[in-house]
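Thread title: Can someone regenerate the structure for this chain?

I was given the following input by a collaborator and told the matching C-alpha cells would be attached. They weren't. Posting the sequence so someone can regenerate them.
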Amino acid sequence: MKDQFETKIKSVVEEFTYDYDPKAWEALSKKLPKTHTGFSWLGKIAIAGILSIGLISIWYNFSPKNERSNNATGVAKNKTQTSEKTNQLAAQKSTTPTKTNANQNIPSLAPNNTNNQGLTQFTPEAILDPNLHLAPLALRQQHTSVPIVSESFHDDGGQMPQVQERLLPLDLPSISSMPCKGPKIILDADAINYEDGTPRIHVSAETMVSELNWNVNGTVINRKNKSFDLLAFKGQTYTITAEGQLDGCKTTEKISITANEDYNLLAVNAFNPQSRDERNATFMPYALTIRDVRFDLVVLDPDNGAVVFKSSDAQNAWDGIDQRNGQMVPAQKAYIWKVVLQETLPGEKSTYTGTIVRI
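Best answer:
Regenerated them for you:
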C-alpha cells in the first residue's frame, strides 16, 4: 500500500511541467552579467614562473661539467694545504722547549684590573714563539692587536673560521725623534754710539719669547729682556748669542759686532792754546766732561816724569801752562796724560793713558 502511494507521487512529480515562454527567457538573459573569457592576471604570473624554472633547469643540465669539477678540485686542494699547515704548527709547538719568561719582573696585566680592560692577554709561550713575530711584553703599549681569520676544514667537508690575534708593531715616531721647532728669533744691532760718553751698542731681538738668555763671547749676561746695551770698551769682534724657549723647544741665534778701536775716554791727541774754539784751546778727555764719574787727571813730562798739570774737575782743563814754572810748555812736544777712575762700569778698566801735543 505504501509502495503504491510513493510510486504514484513520484510519477506525478516527474510528469509535472511549466509552460515555456521563449520571449520571457530572452529578456531575462539580457539582464544577466556577461562572462569574461581568457586567463586572469594570477594565471599569467603562474605560467611565467613555470616557464622560467624550466629554462633554468635546461641551462643547468646542458652546461659544461668541467667548471664544476675544477671548483670542487680547488676546494679539496685548499683543504689539503690548510690541513698540512695546521699539522706543521702543531708539531713546532710541541717541539718548542719551555723558556723562562724574561719579563717575569714586569707587572702583569691582570684581567680583573679595570685600567687594563680592552687589552688582549697572551701567554708566555705565545710571546716567546718566534714564528708569531711578537714584540716583547715591555713594548706592548707600542703595538696593536689585530685579529687574523684563518679557515680550518673538517672531515665532513664543513668549514669553520677561526680567529687568532697577533701583535703588530705600530710605525709611530718616538718622542725623541720628533722634530722640535723652536721660536723664531731675529737679532739686530745698532752702530756704536757715545751719547753718554761710553761706547754702547744697542742689541735687540724680535721674537715671541718673553724672556731671553744672552751671552757675549761666552760670558753670560744676567738679562731677561728682549734688548740690552753692550759696552764695547775693547776694539774687537763681539759674538752675541740669544737663546729662547717656547713649549719646550729651544732656539739659539747669533750676531757678530766689531768695535774698531779701544775706548780711551774720547781724548784728543793735540790741542792749540791759541785757538778761538775753547774745545781745541784746552785739553780734557771729552768723556770726563759728560760722564758723571769721579777721576784724577795728571799730565807728566816724559823727560823726568814730573807733574806738569793735574785736575779732578772736568771744568778745569789744561791750557798748556807748566805748573812748575808757570810758562807755556814747548810746542810739538808730546806729554803723557793719565786718568784714574774712582768708579768704573762693568768690563771697564780703571786707568786710562795717552799722549797730548801742544801745537
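The chain has seven helices and 16 strands.
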